[in-house]
Amino acid sequence: MSNQIASVSKEEKKLVFGKPDALNDEKFSYCPGCHHGIINRLIAEAIDELGIRETTVGTAPVGCSVFLYEWFDIDVVQPAHGRVSAVATGMKRARPDLTVFAYQGDGDFASIGTNNSVHAANRGENITVFFINNTLYGMTGGEMAPTTLIDQKTTTTPGGRKAEDFGYPIKMSEMLSKLDGPTYITRQAVYDVKTIKRAKKAIKKGFRNQLEGKGYSLIEFLSACPINWGLDPVEAIDRIKEEVEQVYPLGDILDRTAGEKE
Amino acid sequence: MGNKQLMRGNEAIAESAIRAGCRNYFAYPITPQAELLQWMATHMPEEDNGTFLQAESEIGAVNMVYGAASTGERAMTSSSSPGISLKQEGISYLAGSDLPAVIVNIMRGGPGLGNIQPAQGDYFQATKGGGHGDYQLLTLAPSTVPEAAQLTYEAFDLADEYRTPVMVLADGMIGQMMEPVELPARKDLNELPSKPWATSGAKNRKPNVIKSFALGGDKLKAMSEERFTKYRVIERKEVRYEEIGVEGPDILVTAFGTVARIVKSTIRLGQEEGINIGLFRPITLWPFPGDRIDELSGKVDTVLTVEMNSGQMVEDIRLSVSKNINTPFYGEMAGCVPTPKGILEEVKKHV
């Protein structure tokens, strides 16, 4: 591979793959095998393809993706933990002409910020929410999240999560799909070509809904956290397929635009 | 102008905010500030791009203000004591992110659920950092309905000028009472200060970031030092107070907000009995007019502080004046309001 590249002369060099304009040249600081970077990139590609880089404002939640503002070449607001949907609501209400996305982890969206998440969805806020579900708290050291699977070992459930003590994995997307407010709710993964392509499509649909004033879109991602799962990146993908998807199946959960022409 | 109208304090504050160019208001119902929310619900939608949103919680409301303010638009929330406790996280983040916003606290009795009577128990919370971290909150304390309207109006300018949250700290008496008010003129939105720092879309410029986060001591230190340099300017330029009969009184009384108004009645009662009472009323609780009270206290033996709490501002008075001045305190707690006569009785103990 490297020999082939080396043999191409300067004149023949043509850039066939680069970073999207919505990302700058800084390197991601995510751990090896983490899926945040793939999701960040897909969002950036979608922003480029929709031509909305100059009118999009993102959010950088507390957690592993807090440095999102270091990597995206767009305006970014960093809210308090859990408050991302409320902050995004304020941004969008104040400036409806901006495209606003909320980027939230499972602790943020499904635990400390549940109240704000549910009501933004119920109001049908015209925002796009990316909800990253890796079944634990990544940055603080692998503690149990509300999304942690039954029997999953975390640093705060060393014997595995027991339902009698800590309840059950919370299914935010299914819960919110019962509300009248949301427009589009889907669960995606990013572990192979097929899932990445689908995820990208979902991201663009979420943005397009906002651009067309159709209301609230939620794109949940099953994301790997190999470091805190104690697995290598490939094993982590296998865990998503074999265990996580059993509790959190992939696919569209609600689509009130179904039947409309895209 | 003769354009006075009879308005409740809560309503005058709300209308004044709209006239100041605030088009984004987020709040949660609580007594005794409910009329503020109700006024906004009716009148904000009459404005172009006016946003009134009843939030899911006090926390939701202050964070919506955070979002709206980050885009560069004028934004406000209001509540009463228990609700303001819930907003403290948001206020800390607003301060830490250098975002301009106005927060109105129509104080009631506390702690806990307390009651719905007027009180001043949130002085410490407002002026000593109610939320976490090193910050100051510019705090304006009106003592009448017209002043509440005027200070709310000016709060937006101060917030924008210094990129800082500003609190209007009133109480249930001011919120509920009706008085004739001459409202300030409507601001032309096109003449509001420009905000090149706002996250309003990175068009033809480098991206802006609104954040309170800086990993590593040096970066956070630099951010904090810059903020405190700003605070020093506020302390130098924005101190406000009112004084009545402070040249050679028998006793100097200090009070803020509603209580200062009651003290004005005590001054009249005192005159009838030949007691010469001076009043010093801080309008900015932070920055506190400590230098001025120190100066004035040199002319009296006693500075009596009266508050609707167990003694909070009196600590700032004692920090400001020299140790050989008597600094007694008289107050009513638990939502009770001191009377002019009650204050006079206390005055007589010290003259």
Task: Write a short abstract of this structure.
The complex is a heterodimer of chains A (about 260) and B (about 350). Chain A has about 260 residues and is α/β, with parallel strands linked by helices.
Structural account:
The complex is a heterodimer of chains A (262) and B (351). With 262 residues, chain A is α/β, with parallel strands linked by helices. Chain A has a single domain, classed as Thiamin diphosphate (ThDP)-binding fold, Pyr/PP domains (Rossmann fold), CATH 3.40.50. Chain A is 38% helix and 16% strand. Chain A contains 11 helices and 9 strands. The model of chain B has no long low-confidence stretch (mean pLDDT 96). Helix content of chain B is 40%, strand content 19%. Chain B has 12 helices and 15 strands. The longest helix of chain B has 21 residues. Chains A and B meet through β2, α4 and α6 of A and α3, α4 and β9 of B.
Task: Compile the SSE list and pairings.
The complex is a heterodimer of chains A (about 260) and B (about 350).
Chain A: H1 2-7, H2 36-50, E1 56-59, H3 68-71, E2 75-77, H4 84-94, E3 99-105, H5 106-112, H6 114-122, E4 128-133, E5 136-137, E6 143-144, H7 163-166, H8 172-176, E7 184-189, H9 193-211, E8 217-222, H10 226-229, H11 233-247, E9 251-255
Parallel strand pairs in A: 1-2, 1-3, 3-4, 4-8, 7-8
Antiparallel strand pairs in A: 5-6, 7-9
Helix pairs in contact in A: 2-9, 5-6
Chain B: E1 5-8, H1 9-19, E2 24-27, H2 34-43, E3 51-54, H3 58-70, E4 75-79, H4 81-96, E5 101-107, H5 123-127, E6 138-140, H6 145-162, E7 165-171, H7 172-176, E8 178-181, E9 209-210, H8 217-237, E10 241-244, E11 251-254, H9 257-272, E12 277-282, E13 284-286, H10 290-297, E14 303-307, H11 313-320, E15 329-331, H12 340-348
Parallel strand pairs in B: 2-3, 2-4, 4-5, 5-7, 6-7, 11-12, 11-14, 14-15
Antiparallel strand pairs in B: 1-8, 6-13, 10-12
Helix pairs in contact in B: 1-2, 1-6, 3-4, 9-12, 10-11
